[in-house]
Amino acid sequence: MNAALHTAFLLAFMANASTTNLPPATVLLADLLNQLPKKPMVLQGQLKVAKGMRARSLNISMDINWGSDPSLVSYTLRDNQNKDLEQLTVIRRGKRDPKYKYAKGDPLVTQNVPDLFAPVQGTDLSWAEISLMFLWWKGAKTVGVETIRSRPCYIVETPSPDRMKKTYGRTRIWIDQSYKMLLQAESYDSKGKLVRRMTIKSFKKIDDQWMIKDIDIQSFPANYRTRLRIHSVEEVRERDF
């Protein structure tokens, strides 16, 4: 075996060994989802979207109850006068495919569920991204480790659902090894080019659990920049949607 072939064999062996010893993606994602707060609460925040000199802000309310069976999360977008614009409710039961309810207008009126991967309200964000839908996609694999902002992370890669492959081919997720929290996510098109980067900027601790507080989202090559900031959290009594 010549030197070049021997080196190539060793590199391939080391790469295979490094991925073989990594924890399964199913375990990592289950641990991450287990960090979601189980008590029902309402999060109030703001979406700020900027492209060049143009900027727009929207209010967002997240009425969450991940601890119920089924879990229920309602996302409501409002204008600067706090008038309702759109609302999506995501209903999940175990490993079954989620169900959705959609309403639009002020007051909100139930309508057919739109394309969840299309931009909403003149932003470059979709309902799929607002709800972090990629955390539940199937077929994920652990592909490596990397340090993000001094935090050792596992890298999980998940293929996009067939209906989304025109926009995204796959998504990579960086999960903090110690806290089991999402630190970063990147989406790539079918040709492998980076089209979106989501960075978690800060967390808020609630009842010994860490919740995402600030998210920065950058689009490529359009260079949209979006920030989601949660400014208040209120625990509520459990109720039906």
Strand elements, count:
13
Tell me the fraction of residues in β-strands, as a range.
over 45%
Written as H for each helix and E for each strand, in order along the chain, the element string is: HHEEEEEEHEEEEEEE
Largest sheet, spatial ordering of strands? 6-5-4-3-2-1-13-12-11-10-9-8-7
The domain count comes to 1
Q: In terms of structural class, how would the helical and strand content be classed?
A: mainly beta
Radius of gyration, whole Å: 19 Å
Task: Kindly report how far apart the N and C termini lie.
Answer: 67 Å
How would you characterize the overall build of this protein?
- With 241 residues, this protein is mainly β.
- The protein has one domain (23-232): Clam (outer membrane lipoprotein receptor (LolB), chain A).
- Helix content is 13%, strand content 48%.
- The chain has 3 helices and 13 strands; from the N terminus they run ααββββββαβββββββ.
- It has helices at 3-20, 25-34, 127-130, and strands at 41-51, 54-65, 71-78, 84-92, 99-104, 109-111, 141-148, 151-159, 170-176, 182-188, 194-206, 209-219, 225-235.
- It has a 13-stranded antiparallel β-sheet, covered by helices on one side.
- 22% of the residues are buried.
List the helices and strands and how they pair.
Layout: H1 3-20, H2 25-34, E1 41-51, E2 54-65, E3 71-78, E4 84-92, E5 99-104, E6 109-111, H3 127-130, E7 141-148, E8 151-159, E9 170-176, E10 182-188, E11 194-206, E12 209-219, E13 225-235
Antiparallel strand pairs: 1-2, 1-13, 2-3, 3-4, 4-5, 5-6, 7-8, 8-9, 9-10, 10-11, 11-12, 12-13
